[in-house]
Write a structure and sequence with these properties.
Length: 329
């Protein structure tokens, strides 16, 4: 028998299908193509294939003065590993009965069981009308929250966050949070290093702290110019050390009460929540990119012990440090 080397079968990239509707917001359509399209493996191969479909192939109106030419019809949804539904100007006046129009229902019938589903901004109205958000946590643009609650009381709406992930269904709050959601999905699929590289390539932060609350009533610091940005910058250089609220506030010449209030206004979360989030991110990067023992990773990220790191990582990511490293190294 001859020794003929047999190449393993080629693995096709994860297919992301963007389902656009009449009145689609071009920026949301573009976000998905740009971010997933930038993701590459260590040897430079594309990790995703991004395609677009509509109810009817051809010209699709956007909410601006341009149209997009869509080659594929709804049958393409049946080939998707992930389906993303951007917003449309149709969502601003959703049907009073909250039901999915027949044409959309027929299109969604192509989607295979187990396909990951995601929406951007008011695209969540489509997922909710399809019953995909029943008894799940979801979000939508804060301006549409009241209408959403009225139409879909069985959805656990959280209008204060940038995005949600409940089971295999994800929702993003608004246009820019579509960026956060796509980077999050890339991070879940391929780790922080790949997501960070995509973020660098598109000149956006790899992760934004906080939620929609920071954009609703007080998006900028008070008129006196005082800010907690300096404290956040210093904290990032000292995540391996104890960080007391009193010390952080004193560094900005604020009382603890004032510092906490302004911190929440600027980031959408408390100082304690923010620091924990940064420490988890630091630990994930170290697990992916170094051979440090888990105990040392815990110390460098400010968790102190491997047990503490294990508890926090399991709570937020769902796996132990060892399992996380095995997946993304």
């Amino acid at each position: 028998m001859s020794d003929i080397a047999v190449s393993p079968p080629a693995v096709r990239p994860h297919r992301v299908v963007v389902f656009v509707r009449d009145g689609v917001l071009p920026i949301e359509f573009g976000i998905v193509h740009r971010l997933f399209g930038e993701a590459r493996s260590r040897d430079g191969k594309p990790l995703y294939e991004v395609l677009t479909c509509a109810l009817t192939p051809g010209a699709v109106r956007t909410d601006s003065d341009v149209t997009i030419a869509v080659e594929h019809g709804p049958a393409l949804l049946g080939t998707a590993d992930t389906v993303v539904v951007p917003a449309s100007d149709q969502d601003y006046d959703p049907p009073d009965d909250g039901c999915l129009p027949r044409a959309l229902a027929d299109a969604f019938a192509h989607i295979r069981t187990g396909t990951r589903m995601a929406s951007i901004c008011t695209g969540s109205f489509v997922l909710a009308a399809a019953g995909l958000l029943d008894n799940r946590r979801a979000t939508t643009h804060w301006k549409s929250a009241d209408a959403f609650r009225r139409l879909y009381p069985h959805v656990r709406l959280d209008p204060g966050v940038l995005y949600t992930h409940d089971g295999g269904v994800l929702t993003a709050a608004g246009v820019a949070s579509g960026i956060d959601l796509c980077l999050y999905m890339i991070r879940v699929d391929h780790g922080a290093s790949v997501a960070n590289e995509v973020a660098r390539g598109t000149v956006v932060p790899p992760h934004r702290s906080g939620g929609q609350a920071q954009f609703i009533t007080e998006p900028v610091p008070e008129a006196d110019g005082a800010s907690t940005a300096g404290a956040r910058a210093r904290a990032l250089t000292r995540l391996d050390q104890p960080l007391s609220l009193r010390e952080l506030a004193a560094g900005e010449s604020m009382s603890v009460r004032t510092f906490t209030r302004r911190f929440r206004a600027e980031t959408g979360m408390s100082p304690t929540q923010w620091i924990l989030e940064q420490r988890i991110m630091r630990a994930r990067e170290l697990l992916e990119n170094t051979d440090l023992p888990v105990e040392d990773v815990a110390g460098a990220a400010g968790f102190g012990t491997a047990t503490s790191l294990r508890q926090h990582l399991s709570r937020t990511v769902g796996v132990s440090p060892t399992a996380y490293r095995a997946t993304f190294r």
